[in-house]
Design brief:
This protein is an alpha+beta fold. It has a single domain, classed as Glutaredoxin (3-Layer(aba) Sandwich). Helix content is 35%, strand content 28%. The strands form three sheets. The chain has a seven-stranded mixed β-sheet, with helices on one face. It has a two-stranded antiparallel sheet with strand order 1-2. It has a two-stranded antiparallel ribbon with strand order 8-9. Helix 2 packs parallel to helix 5. The longest helix has 22 residues. Belongs to the SCO1/2 family. Keywords: Copper, Disulfide bond, Metal-binding. GO terms for molecular function: metal ion binding. It holds the Pfam family SCO1-SenC.
Amino acid sequence: MNKERIKIMLMLMLAIMISACEQSERRLPLIPDGVKQTVVDGKPVIDTVYKTISDFSFLNQDSVMVTNKDFDGKIYVADFFFTSCPTICPVMHRNLLKVYEKYKGNPEVMFLSHTIDYRYDIPSRLKSYRSKLGADGKQWQFVWGARDMVYAMAQKDYLVSVNEDKAAPGGYVHQGYLVLIDKHRRVREAYDGTNADQVEQLMKDMDILLKEK
């Protein structure tokens, strides 16, 4: 084997090793949300602030209060929907059910679905909807909250547009995003819940996030 061929083989092996290393160390992006200034050793230091979910408290499908503390130390997928939605919600939740089934029983993973129909979707209706969907236990929570609180959190924290619109099918308009949150309550990525390819990517990214230190 001549020196040139050995050189090429070594370069190929190095490229494969670098690629494998990059894949194993891949990190999901953080979403900036401004900067803050602190003082370290008498000197001002500017730090980036990342998009983080605020404290929350909602009633779940069992009329039990659910708060951000129930999600401490876990990654979770959040979405906004309403039970009588005639358009994107059924597709979005069928796709999300596949994600739920993959991670069912994993104590580091949860799911949080917020209704935007504060008039109709009382806890008992959420419970019936969840049962028909095929979710059970505490891993996937369906929650109700006051209109202003839910809408503000959707738009400010999760960066998802929701609103009432009498002209829209079902009376509401919203984006079908599945938003991935890390163990520090930081928004890491959003996926179109009606797109099968993006839902597959969500699961791949969840695997990466679970390995993140």
